[in-house]
Write a structure and sequence with these properties.
Layout lengths: L2 E6 L4 H13 L3 E3 L12 E7 L7 H8 L7 E7 L5 H6 L12 E5 L1
Parallel strand pairs: 1-2, 1-3, 3-4, 4-5
Length: 108
């Protein structure tokens, strides 16, 4: 399955989770601060962002607004502040089977 993980990370926690998910899926994790990827070819799009007051980062929102309706699958995850980003990323270690779901919301 052609997969892509896109994320915005202000402090690094979301990046660590995105990198872990991408590693498990065998795909690329793209920081929207550095690149706006072409998501037309994607069969599974995973989107992650920290929890900020009521809004997504403007580049992440722009990417989502530009998506066309698709029969592809999507998953989202959110991160929140905490003292140890490695503890949060460790939650995803070994969970290779989560990608088989049509839609999955992960809140970390």
């Amino acid at each position: 399955m052609k997969s892509l993980v896109v994320y915005y990370s202000r402090g690094g926690k979301t990046r660590k989770v995105a990198d872990t998910i991408a590693q498990q899926l065998g795909c690329k994790a793209v920081d929207v601060e550095k690149e706006i990827p072409d998501a037309l070819w994607v069969e599974l799009l995973v989107v992650g962002c920290g929890q900020y007051p009521g809004k997504l980062h403007k580049r992440l929102q722009s990417l989502l607004d530009g998506l066309q309706p698709s029969k592809g699958k999507a998953a989202v995850f959110a991160t929140a502040g905490g003292p140890d980003p490695n503890a949060r990323a460790a939650v995803f270690q070994g969970y290779r089977t989560w990608a088989r779901f049509k839609s999955l919301i992960l809140i970390v």
